[in-house]
Amino acid sequence: MTDNIFMRIIQKKEPAEIIYQDNYVTAFRDIFPKAPTHIIIVTNIHIPTVNDIEKEHALILGHLFIAASKIALKEKINKSGYRLIVNCNRDSGQEIYHLHMHLLGGKPLGKLLC
User: Fold this and answer.
1) Domains, the chain, with CATH or none
2) Is the pTM of this model over 0.70?
3) Which of these, 27, 38, 95, 113, could form a disulfide with 20 (CB 3.0-4.6 Å)?
4) Which pLDDT tens digit goes with each residue over 17-66?
5) Among 38, 57, 63, 100, which one carries the catalytic annotation?
6) 71 burial class (0-12, 13-18, 19+ CB within 10 angstroms)?
C-alpha cells in the first residue's frame, strides 16, 4: 500500500474534516479552499493518476460522482451549481499522486479555460 497524505486521512492516521466515507471513496474539506465549499473526494485505493485507471476501477469511479452528488446536496449547492475538477500530472497542477476530485461551489466560479 502506498503511503501518502490521502491514504493517511482515509485510514484516520492524519487529521481531516471527513464529511463522507464509504467502501470506495473518502471526502474531506480542503485545508486551502479555493471556494466557500471546497471538498476533496479521493479513492480509497491508491490510483496515482487518471492515466492509471483500469477497467476494474469503474465501480470506484462511479462512486466519486455519487459522493459528489450527495455532498453537493448536503452542502446545499446542488441547485446553485458546483464544479468537479480532476487534475492529471504536473502540467494540470496535480500535487498529490492519488486520484482525487475537487468539488467546488458556494459562489459563482467563472468560466473554464475552454
Assistant:
1) 5-105 (3.30.428.10)
2) yes
3) 27
4) 999 999 999 999 999 999 999 999 999 999 999 999 999 999 999 999 99
5) 100
6) buried
